[in-house]
Write a structure and sequence with these properties.
- The complex is a heterodimer of chains A (about 220) and B (about 375).
- Chain A contains eight helices and eight strands.
- Chain A is of the alpha/beta class and about 220 residues long.
- Chain A folds into two domains: about 180 residues, Rossmann fold; about 35 residues, no CATH class.
- In chain A, strand 1, helix 1 and strand 2 form a beta-alpha-beta unit.
- The N and C termini of chain A lie far apart (about 40 Å).
- Chain B is of the alpha/beta class and about 375 residues long.
- Chain B has a single domain, classed as Luciferase-like domain (TIM Barrel).
- In chain B, the strands form three sheets. In chain B, strands 3-2-1-13-10-9-8-5-4 form a nine-stranded parallel β-sheet, covered by helices on one side. In chain B, strands 6-7 form a two-stranded antiparallel ribbon.
- The chains are: A alpha/beta (about 220), B alpha/beta (about 375).
- Chains A and B meet through helix 2 and helix 8 of A and helix 5, helix 6, helix 7 and helix 9 of B.
- Chain B: This is N5,N10-methylene tetrahydromethanopterin reductase.
């Protein structure tokens, strides 16, 4: 079974140091999955080209165009890598909007590695004070090591060690987690990945019978 | 097939003039629009229920519908929607049965759960109970309409001992009920369980989503033994703006679209029209788009259009209704009649038909 790791990268410039960090985290994760003797497919969702569609979805509540397939990739991932530049003491608004648009429960139990880039190491705690609570709220399984890459870090060896450690944690969590996409419960309906495995072509193929709804309403 | 309009009663500034109608003007305009629906040969007028600005839709749709009933002869009066969650089912049973008598049976209802969260606390309810309220309240409403003496106990209102809801439904037959849901599969299941209609207001949603919701209802309708899946009673929302020349329609509607509540200041008119049922163009373009809806969801029974929103002036709305009733709907009727197999009902049963063949009501 091939594991799917998807990175969401919210860098805005081109080239982007956020994307650079994202790629290095994915390389490391790829290496660790392979070391476990498993197959892995990695993919990056860049938010910059989706910016207008993300704003549209805030208003219309449904995704359109390329954003639809980007969200599907994220929902189908066995693990996520989420990387944002630090803006005004937090992740970027674009990064937040992408996750705000997901359905409730979309990331339940998903292993997530969080990372950020910024001008100096003084921004490091953003990951602990802003991004980790975001994913905790979403009931994702955030791994203990978060990776901050300040501009200076790209010229040091310490960053490599942190990347490696975080990627190892992500892969371990993914490989043992019962909460990955393949077994996630979506509340009223089975998770979409689970439905796909069962051969359902429509996410409403299985439905709670009304007698149970009646019973539930009155109890 | 039935065609009509539904209004949400929004009071919106006309972006082309900067003028905002008064509540009185909006309410009187709504009555004029309802009368126009009958005049141009449409079948249904439905009004929303709202409890907050900027809406001047009635808090109790039966008030407006009774007024319209007195000034029309033929059209069906409906709701879009009646809040089954926060209204007391006893009042719903009484008010809509009374309306049935005034309107000689020209009444049906679409049940909904409201468009704003605070409506729950305003009426002493908890939004987290939304689905449970819809299920319990409707189950009680059905009993109040079909049983003379109701002894009942539930979670959300005080118990009833030998209670009789008055007046009794006209000819002993309650109004036909649709259940409206955009996203909740539980509500599609509820409609299917009772063999009621399912109204999917997909005006802000792509067809892929609409198809899933309608298919769920159809499959469960058959599962619960009310008929074949294609005999289930389906209604859809719609949104159009027309001029003889499609460029004129786009030019005239664009400022209303760009500033509209809900989707304004977001996607372009062109993008939104591609993704949702919004169609802005010539009457022929509307006929082509809506004539093909049944290709996606199967033959359906009711098509309601949102025509009077986003600050469009009354004069424009009445012109739109002239085009809709005069040029578009006759053609859509012809297309629907031609493609519908004989075993598929053309409309939900009207009052007289329901009296002639009363349903067995399971409780």
């Amino acid at each position: 079974m091939t594991r799917r790791i998807v990175a969401v990268s919210a860098g805005l410039s081109e080239p982007s140091s956020t994307r650079l960090l994202t790629d290095r985290l994915l390389e490391a994760a790829d290496r660790h999955v392979t070391a476990h003797g498993e197959d892995v497919a990695v993919e990056v969702v860049e938010l910059r080209p989706l910016a207008r569609l993300i704003a549209d979805q805030m208003l219309t509540r449904f995704p359109s165009g390329e954003l639809t397939s980007a969200i599907e990739k994220v929902l189908a991932a066995d693990a996520l890598v989420a990387v944002s530049p630090v803006f005004s003491g937090s992740y970027s608004g674009l990064f937040k909007s992408f996750f705000d648009n997901l359905d409730v429960g979309a990331l339940d139990g998903t292993p997530v590695l969080i990372g950020a880039t910024g001008g100096s190491a003084r921004h490091s705690l953003m990951l602990e004070h802003a991004m980790r609570p975001l994913f905790s709220y979403l009931h994702a399984a955030v791994v203990p090591t978060a990776v901050m890459a300040a501009t200076d870090d790209f010229g040091t060896t310490g960053l490599d060690r942190r990347i490696d450690r975080a990627a190892a944690e992500l892969v371990t969590t993914m490989l043992v987690s019962p909460g990955s996409a393949s077994s996630r419960q979506g509340g009223f309906l089975p998770a979409e990945a689970e439905q796909r495995e069962a051969g359902f072509t429509d996410r409403f193929d299985e439905v709670t019978d009304f007698s149970e709804l009646l019973h539930r309403a009155s109890s | 097939m039935e065609f009509g309009i539904f209004t949400v009663g929004d009071i919106t500034t006309d972006p082309t003039t900067g003028r905002t109608p008064t509540e009185n003007e909006r309410i009187k305009a709504t009555v004029a629009i309802a009368k126009k629906v009958e005049e141009v040969g449409l079948d249904v007028f439905a009004t929303g229920e709202h409890h907050n600005p900027p809406f001047a839709a009635p808090a109790n749709p039966a008030v407006l519908l009774a007024h319209v009933a007195a000034q029309t002869e033929r059209i069906v009066l409906s709701t879009s929607t009646t809040l089954i969650t926060t209204n007391d089912p006893v009042r719903l049973a009484e008010d809509y049965a009374y309306l049935q008598h005034l309107a000689d049976g020209r009444v049906d209802l679409i049940m909904g759960r409201g468009n704003t969260g605070p409506v729950y606390p305003w009426f002493g309810k908890d939004i987290r109970d939304g689905i449970d309220l819809a299920i319990e309240n409707y189950a009680l409403l059905r009993r109040l309409w079909t049983e003379e003496s109701v002894t009942w106990q539930g979670r959300f209102r005080s118990p009833l001992q030998g209670f009789t809801s008055t007046p009794r439904p006209l000819d002993g037959v309650p109004p036909f009920v649709w259940h409206g849901s955009i996203r909740s599969p539980e509500i599609a299941e509820q409609a299917a369980f009772y063999g009621d209609g399912f109204f999917h207001n997909h005006i802000f949603w792509p067809m892929s989503h609409t198809k899933q919701m309608v298919n769920l209802y159809r499959r469960r309708y058959q599962h619960h033994g009310h008929g074949k899946h294609d005999q289930a009673i389906v209604g859809l929302g719609g949104q159009v703006f027309m001029r003889a020349n499609s460029q004129d329609a786009v030019r005239e509607f664009r400022p209303y679209f760009d500033n509209a509540p809900v989707y304004g200041h977001g996607p372009s008119l062109e993008d939104f029209a591609r993704e949702t049922p919004l169609t802005v163009g010539s009457p022929q373009q509307v006929i082509e788009r809506y004539g093909a809806m049944a290709d996606h969801v199967g033959d359906y029974q009711r098509q309601l259009f949102l025509m009077d929103h986003a600050g469009l002036p009354l004069k424009t709305v009445l012109e739109q209704l002239d085009i809709l009733g005069g040029e578009v709907v006759p053609e859509l009727r012809r297309i629907a009649d031609a493609r519908r197999p004989a075993h598929v009902p053309a409309t939900a049963l009207r009052h007289a038909e329901r009296v002639a063949q009363p349903e067995t009501v399971e409780v």
